[in-house]
Amino acid sequence: MTAFPLSVLDLAPVATGTANGAALRHTTALAQRVEQLGYRRFWVAEHHNMPGIASSAPAVLLAHLAASTSTIRLGSGGVMLPNHAPLVVAEQFGTLVALHPDRIDLGIGRAPGTDQVTALALRRSVDALSAQDFPQELARLVDYFTSTSEHARVVAVPGRGDTPGIWLLGSSDFSARLAGQLGLPFSYAHHFSSGGTDAALAVYRSSFQPSQWLAEPYAMVAVSAVCAETDAEAEWLSGPAVLAFLRLRQGRPGQMPTPEEAAAYPYTPMEREFALQRREGQALGSPETVTRQLNDLLKRTAADELMLTTLVYDINARIRSYELIADQVAPTLTRPH
Question: For FRET with 321, which of 42, 108, 141, 293 sits at 20 to 30 Å CA-CA?
Answer without folding.
Answer: 108
